[in-house]
């Protein structure tokens, strides 16, 4: 009986850790349009895999080392989408990452990158 009580106690204490461990988002890549014009909004997408039931909070993006800039995101069919904007025409290394909630904890997904050329 004592062993059974110890096993139940251990399972109860570890259960929250197991549920957090089974909750994640892994971004696969950052997809950007071929043509981006300065001063005009453009959509980006990030296909992802998830484990468990993460809840998206927001995304952060960097243009080279400028940032992070916070954006709202939407998701459907295994893809996270955001609408971005820049006024400065030039070439950038754009990177992004999402923040998501698992239970009461907010986690960060991996960062994905792509080359971006903004035309005047």
Per DSSP, what share of the residues sits in E-state strands of 2 or more residues?
A: over 45%
**Main beta-sheet annotation:** 6 strands, mixed
Number of helices: 1
Number of domains: 1
| Overall average residue pLDDT | 89
Rg computed from alpha carbons, rounded to a whole number of angstroms: 19 Å
User: In the CATH classification, which architecture applies?
Assistant: Sandwich
Low-confidence stretches: 9-15
The top-level CATH class is Mainly Beta
- Element order, helices and strands? HEEEEEEEEEE
Question: CATH homologous superfamily?
Answer: Immunoglobulins
Helix content class: 10-25%
Instruction: Give the structural class.
Output: alpha+beta
| Large-scale geometry | elongated
Instruction: Tell how many strands the DSSP assignment holds.
Output: 10
| End-to-end gap | 75 Å
What does it look like?
This protein has a single domain (2-119), classed as Immunoglobulins (Immunoglobulin-like, Sandwich), CATH 2.60.40. It is 17% helix and 53% strand. It contains 1 helix and 10 strands. Strands 2, 4, 5, 8, 9 and 10 form a 6-stranded mixed sheet that branches. Strands 1-3-7-6 form a 4-stranded antiparallel sheet, with no helix packed on it. Strand 8 and strand 9 form a beta hairpin. 17% of the residues are buried. Residues 9-15 have low confidence and may be disordered.
Supply database-style keywords.
Immunoglobulin-like; 120 residues; six-stranded mixed β-sheet; four-stranded antiparallel β-sheet; alpha+beta
Topology:
Blueprint: H1 2-21, E1 24-27, E2 36-37, E3 42-51, E4 55-63, E5 66-71, E6 74-76, E7 79-84, E8 91-102, E9 105-108, E10 112-119
Parallel strand pairs: 2-10
Antiparallel strand pairs: 1-3, 3-7, 4-5, 4-8, 6-7, 8-9, 8-10
